[in-house]
Amino acid sequence: FKITPLSISGCMARTPFRSTLSLQRWTAGSEVLCRSVLLVLFFLLQHLAPALVPGASSPLASWTIRYEDPHVLVVDKGSGLLTVPGIGPEKADCMLSRLRDVGYPEVTHAPHRLDRDTSGLVVVGRTLAAHRALCCQFEAREVTKRYEALVLGWPDADEGEVDQPIGKVQLEGESHARMRILQGGKGRPSLTRWRVLDRSRLADGTRFSRVTLLPVTGRAHQLRLHMRHAGWPLLGDELHGTDEAAAAFPRLCLHASSLSFKHPAAQRIGGTDCTDGVVTVSSDAPF
Known about the structure:
Elements: H1 5-14, H2 16-48, E1 63-68, E2 72-77, H3 95-101, E3 119-125, H4 128-139, E4 144-152, E5 159-163, E6 166-169, E7 178-181, E8 191-201, E9 207-215, H5 222-230, H6 243-247, E10 254-262, E11 274-275, E12 278-282
Parallel strand pairs: 3-10
Antiparallel strand pairs: 1-2, 2-3, 4-9, 4-10, 5-8, 6-7, 8-9, 10-12, 11-12
Helix pairs in contact: 1-2
């Protein structure tokens, strides 16, 4: 049977009601489909477009509150979420803004921060006095922070430290300055202590180690830079790691797993997480 304009016209003429009804249904269905597609595109542009901007928060990044009282919050921040807003409206989405969106309008500043791709614990004050007290503790290095990480290779020793100065510098040909290890007295003193928790292999046989990291100082990107300098770059670190380490895991394998600080109210708070005014919160690494 050969389809021609005449045969189609003849069929439609013999069954006018059925053809018209089918055409109406097809047209209505197409309109619904078009509306659905437009709605999906609008959602993607509104909610997912910021993630396409380098350095912006991912809309899929999660967070949970691990400790809460009238003075402080301890938040477990997911990888891919800025702690504080960056420069520009596309980087306004961050941990602080999300806290305000769900009923914590008093949280406007953070006494410390984690890199966007680092997950783990962040403490914030709910009052101005609490925020100032926490800032003083961080400045005086009275807060104990521990991190867990996966690094490429097997360190020869079970523990050690990296004592290398860190500073921000822009090299010739680069578009912006970056944190680096700087010799010759140009960087700020920086100290990291590390300990191996486990040595293992990836599915392809690549050696890696799980380590706990204790930053004595708190420079930006300190742990990532120090472990790279020691010869064991963090898995998933696309900024400071080697190509092999960056490709070994789909995210940066660095997690702030423990945080201990003196409660800003300087009084004993009931509960298992607070003893004699010291709050200790822990979080398991998601990798």
